[in-house]
Structure formats: C-alpha cells, structure tokens
Specification:
This protein is α+β, with helices and mostly antiparallel strands and 110 residues long. The protein has a single domain, classed as Copper binding periplasmic protein CusF (OB fold (Dihydrolipoamide Acetyltransferase, E2P), Beta Barrel), CATH 2.40.50. It is 17% helix and 46% strand.
Length: 110
C-alpha cells in the first residue's frame, strides 16, 4: 500500500510540475516515475548518482533544472545520499538519463 501511495504522490508532483510548465518545454519522457531505487553512489563532479532497483544499477544525470522533493517539501542535490530511496522522473538526452524530478523518501520516524 505504501508503494502505491508513493507512486501516486510522485505522479501528482510530476503532473503539477508539468501543468505549470509550457507544453513546448516539456521533454519526452521515457521510463516511469517508478524509476530509481536505492542510491548506491553519487559523483558531485559529474553531477550523477546511481540507484539500484531489482538488482540493476541506473545512472541519472542532474542539471540546474532538476527538481528535488523530500516528503512533499522542496529538497536539493545534497539530500541525495548513499542509502536513500528515490523515485526518478527522467528523459533521455543522447545516451544519458537526465533526471527532471527526484522524489526522495523521507527517513522513517521523521
């Protein structure tokens, strides 16, 4: 049940973000908001992070336009830490997955 709520939450954040943005600037999305997983690595110099889901690593690049959401509030790149669970809305730019929205699960008990 929590997975469904998390999915619906990130979907509503993504929908609200896209509703505000002009249609011409919306990138073509690949994957789903269920992309992501548990962060296993992060490279500040390259501005990338790797998340493992179902045993498979996925690397996402961030830009100045990437939005971070932590438990419904605005977050930042510094909130993406090794061990954190994330959901990523992304688009493909050449051979890279570029993160548009990164939903970061708030730690339990907060």
């Amino acid at each position: 049940m929590q997975s469904r709520r998390s999915f619906l939450y990130l979907a509503s954040v993504a929908a609200a973000t896209l509703a505000v943005a002009p249609a011409s600037s919306a990138p073509a999305y690949h994957g789903s908001s269920r992309g992501g997983g548990t962060v296993t690595g992060r490279d500040d110099g390259a501005r990338t992070f790797t998340a493992v889901r179902r045993g498979r690593p996925w690397t996402y690049h961030i830009t100045d336009k990437t939005r971070f959401v932590v438990g419904g509030a605005q977050g930042s790149w510094s909130d993406v830490k090794v061990g954190t669970r994330v959901q990523v809305r992304w688009h493909r730019a050449r051979d890279q997955r570029v993160a548009d929205i990164v939903g970061i699960r708030a730690p339990r008990g907060t």
